[in-house]
Design brief:
Layout (H helix, E strand, L loop, with lengths): L1 H17 L10 E6 L7 H14 L5 E6 L4 H10 L4 E5 H9 L14 E17 L14 E4 L5 H12 L9 E4 L2 H9 L5 E6 L4 H7 L4 E4 L2 H11 L4 E5 L11 E13 L4 H12 L2 H7 L21 H9 L5
Parallel strand pairs: 1-2, 1-3, 5-6, 5-7
Antiparallel strand pairs: 3-10, 4-7, 4-8, 4-10, 9-10
């Protein structure tokens, strides 16, 4: 009897040794989202997206945010494969994908970039001193004007707008390429007559400048915006309501470009599908990250889309009945 019990015990132990061990949980996949400067708008929005997708139960990813110099650099980071997702202006995305306009992309298209969704409009805002007498784009002739930084999307916005109104840079009195804060300082000091800013409405930098009471907002008008839109399909037409800035008494119409999220084209379709789904299932969290994101809905998500959609994003929007 004792011998039989010993054999049974040994057999049971041997059986236990060959039972499969529990499978280890698959390690989360790490993805990176390129944003902008830490004090800008892209950074908190990218941070909110990173938290949303990292918390999504069926995604099993850990997302991190990388600060950058902005749209042009972000397209280059997508090209090099150093990041998986990025926020950038849709006009810069258009230039990059088609290999046109900007030196960074001319004859060097970024074909490894796909669209996910657009987030919010960045309005091209022309701020002029009241003393300059500039009330319309054509009034910039002979004036001292600040464009965006060299090689930036904002610089191109300014050049395209004056061209649509029959002007060229040589028609202006002088031009400078400066960052937004320096441009505001020049306006407040009366050293320039006008400056172009491509940013979200209510920008603190512009609001601060309007606090002087010596500035005005110059629109391009509906016809001017439509002319731009016909030539450059990435533009949208935006209305800047009265009192968006202190002392701004009249509503103006200005062209806008869209801040958009892009992805590396090589990312798996299912990952991008679930990534996109997680974001739109948590829109309140994204909107809480920055006021600029409050206008994002399913219905606006493809406004100004300048790229072919990633198959994963296309699948999501098809399911929702959203067409470009």
């Amino acid at each position: 009897m004792n011998r039989y019990r010993t054999i049974v015990l040994v057999a049971a132990l041997a059986g236990a040794l060959v039972l499969p061990a529990p499978l280890a949980a698959e390690a989360p996949r790490h993805v990176t989202i390129a944003s902008g400067s830490v004090d800008g708008i892209y950074y908190p929005i990218a941070g909110a997206i990173a938290r949303i997708v990292s918390d999504a139960r069926d995604l099993n990813i850990r997302a991190s945010v990388e600060s950058s110099e902005g749209s042009v650099m972000n397209a280059q980071l997508i090209r090099s494969g150093e990041v998986d997702f990025a926020l950038l202006q849709n006009d810069v995305a258009y230039y990059a994908f088609n290999g046109v306009t900007l030196d960074a992309f001319t004859r060097k298209p970024v074909k490894t970039m796909s669209g996910i969704f657009t987030v919010y409009p960045e309005v091209v805002q022309i701020v002029a001193t009241k003393a300059s007498g500039v009330r319309a784009v054509r009034d910039l002739k002979g004036k001292r004007v600040v464009f965006g930084l060299p090689g930036s999307g904002a610089e191109q916005n300014a050049l395209q707008i004056i061209e649509a109104h029959g002007l060229h840079e040589r028609d202006l009195g002088s031009t400078a390429r400066l960052p937004a804060t320096a441009a505001v300082d020049q306006l407040k000091a009366g050293l320039v007559d006008a400056a172009f800013f491509t940013t979200s409405l209510g920008s603190p930098v512009i609001a601060d400048a309007f606090g002087s009471g010596r500035l005005t907002l110059v629109g391009v008008g509906t016809s001017g915006a439509e002319t731009l839109q016909r030539k450059y399909p990435f533009y949208t037409i935006e209305r800047v309501a009265a009192n968006t800035y202190p002392g701004q008494e009249l509503e103006v119409v200005s062209p806008g470009v869209m801040a958009m999220l892009v992805a590396r084209s090589g990312l798996p379709e299912d990952l991008v599908y679930r990534f996109t789904k997680a974001v739109f299932e948590s829109l309140p969290k994204l909107r809480a990250a920055h006021s600029a994101a409050r206008s994002l809905t399913l219905q606006t998500a493809l406004a100004g889309m300048a790229l072919p959609l990633h198959p994963g994003a296309q699948r999501f929007f098809n399911e929702k009945g959203i067409a470009r």
